[in-house]
Write a structure and sequence with these properties.
By secondary structure, this protein is largely without helices or strands. It has 1 helix and 4 strands. The strands form 2 sheets. It has a two-stranded antiparallel sheet. The longest helix has 12 residues.
Length: about 100
């Protein structure tokens, strides 16, 4: 019985018949429209896949980076979604209102 289980597992790992368990992924493109978009909040988009035949869901969601509504100020390496600098580039320091000089 243990050998049968191993044989089935080995068969599932092979790239035959479109199974390729644990080894094959299929890229997809999704267009998502969010209205109204909450630009004053920190936002990330999460998505899961559904198998249309079985209804099975992906084990983990795909997630976007945090979306920014404003650009980082000059000389800033990392900033919040509201454009407030959180880390200045090397050689710069914080000035008023979290800008780098």
């Amino acid at each position: 019985e243990a050998q049968q289980i191993q044989d089935v597992f080995e068969k599932l790992l092979q790239d035959e018949g479109g199974v390729a368990m644990y080894k094959q992924t299929f890229p997809y493109l999704a267009n998502i429209q969010i209205c109204p978009f909450p630009w004053n909040e920190e936002v990330a988009i999460y998505a899961i896949a559904e198998n249309q035949k079985t209804g099975a869901l992906s084990p983990r969601p795909a997630v976007s980076n945090v979306l920014h509504s404003r650009q980082c100020p000059a000389n800033c390496e990392i900033c919040s979604h509201l454009g407030q600098c959180q880390k200045c580039k090397e050689g710069y320091r914080y000035e008023d209102e979290r800008t780098c000089e």
